[in-house]
From TrEMBL:
The name this protein goes by in its record: Acetylornithine/succinyldiaminopimelate aminotransferase
Species for this entry: Rosenbergiella gaditana
Main location: cytoplasm
Binding site for pyridoxal 5'-phosphate: 108-109, 141, 226-229, 284
Organism domain of life: Bacteria
Lineage of producing organism: Bacteria, Pseudomonadati, Pseudomonadota, Gammaproteobacteria, Enterobacterales
């Protein structure tokens, strides 16, 4: 070992990591349940959940055990071979949803990339080579590959990289008339998040989603639900579409699927899947046994009526605590969302202080997220204990008091 070693500190980030993130000033080193500790041993309550990923908290004992066991069994084969964990997980996902066929990948963007490619492939192969238009929404987020970031509705993320994938149009979210104005026989898909997550925790209305379903049926287009953030119990159902009558043709899920281990899935029906043939799409890592075994364990725990009822109960704790804070400080205009995907929109006079609230929260020992330009976002573990909710809310109150003086 060399005599002088580079100290591993937050400063090193600014020297060696591509400058596309602005991480917090501390470096977490350990997590357990809904608590995290940094290099100095300072404790944090986690209301962020790794951006809606660690749905069972950090280092859940069952996931740890599953990962350890599988790590001694088989890690990776590629899709030249299939494997038992992938087959088991796919069977369980089809049993639990509208879907018959599953494609596994490693991230939300990759699941969406597959979904958008499938939608176009299906339309161009079964109806017309000109049926390629994708309708998506302002403020939508679908990932960072060039196709998915272009379908996303935030040009600041897709500009500057040269010519974009073509034939993608964006209209205002929750505005059915705007969709009617652009949909036509050349439309292959409408892509929507049941609750816009990154865009500001904005739920789609029931009327909007059922209107999209009708338009898709009328124009022979596929309805794609991006449930990367809303899936896996986040809203109190296994998938958000299960709250309503509207069933999509393609659904993507990622974030919480592996509870923190990278894995994603695209779900669809047989009639759509059958246009694909060996070689039409693929991935090296997708569906590897290590990821699928952890996701299977995660799904087994989350797809349980008691756990899902607990998400609803925790929703009530969060809303009640946020309303109490708001009665005192009057900083939120709306508190919205479903289950444990909750957004508190800052009043206009506080919107510019969004980063200050998050930084002050960290100083008081609370991990918190933003969404959009003026929303505090709460995406904790689906099994966060009541005591952690209360302690976290006390810290939030202290942080707010500090910021607004
Ligand atoms: C996070 C997110 C994605 C992208 O997922 P990655 O794993 O970062 O590629 C896509 N869609 C939605 C709705 C998301 O919240």
């Amino acid at each position: 070992m060399p005599v002088t070693q580079t100290p591993i500190t937050r400063e090193l980030f600014d020297e060696v990591i591509l400058p596309i993130y602005a991480p917090a000033q501390f470096v977490p080193v350990k997590g357990q349940g809904s608590r995290v500790w940094d290099q100095q041993g300072k404790e944090y309550i986690d209301f962020a959940g790794g951006i809606a990923v660690t749905a069972l908290g950090h280092c859940h004992p069952v996931l740890v055990e599953t990962l350890q066991k599988q790590s001694e069994q088989l890690w990776h084969l590629s899709n030249i071979f299939t494997n038992e964990p992938a087959l088991r997980l796919a069977k369980k996902l089809t049993d639990a949803t509208f879907a018959d066929r599953i494609f596994f990948a490693n991230s939300g963007a990759e699941a969406n990339e597959a979904a958008f490619k499938l939608a176009r492939y299906y339309a161009t192969n079964t109806i017309s080579p000109y049926k390629t238009k994708i309708i998506a929404f302002h403020h939508a987020f679908h990932g960072r590959t060039f196709f998915t970031v272009t379908v996303g509705g935030q040009p600041k993320y897709s500009d500057g990289f040269g010519p974009k994938p073509a034939d993608i149009v964006h209209v205002p979210f929750n505005d059915l008339d705007a969709v009617k104005a652009v949909i036509d026989d050349h439309t292959c898909a409408i892509v929507v998040e049941p609750i816009q997550g990154e865009g500001g925790v904005t739920p789609a209305t029931e009327a909007f989603l059922s209107g999209l379903r009708q338009l898709c049926d009328q124009y022979q287009a596929l309805l794609v639900f991006d449930e990367v953030q809303t899936g896996m119990g986040r809203t109190g159902k296994l998938f958000a579409y299960q709250h309503s009558e509207v069933v999509p043709d393609i659904l993507t899920t990622a974030k919480a699927l592996g509870g923190g281990f990278p894995v994603s899935a695209m779900l669809t029906r047989e009639g759509i899947a059958k246009v694909m043939t060996p070689g039409s799409h693929g991935t090296t890592y997708g569906g590897n046994p290590l990821a699928c075994s952890v996701a299977e364990a995660s799904l087994d725990i989350i797809n349980d009526s008691q756990l899902l009822a607990g998400v609803e109960q925790r929703h009530q704790w969060f809303i009640k605590a946020l309303e109490e804070i708001n009665n005192h400080y009057h900083i939120f205009t709306t508190i919205r969302g479903k289950g444990l995907l909750i957004g508190a929109q800052l009043a206009p006079e506080y919107a510019a202080r969004l980063r200050d609230f998050i930084q002050a929260a960290a100083e008081h020992g609370l991990l918190l997220l933003s969404a959009g330009s003026d929303v505090l976002r709460f995406t904790p573990s689906l099994i966060i204990p009541e005591q952690d909710v209360q302690q976290g809310m006390a810290k939030l109150q202290q942080a707010i008091a500090q910021v607004i003086g």
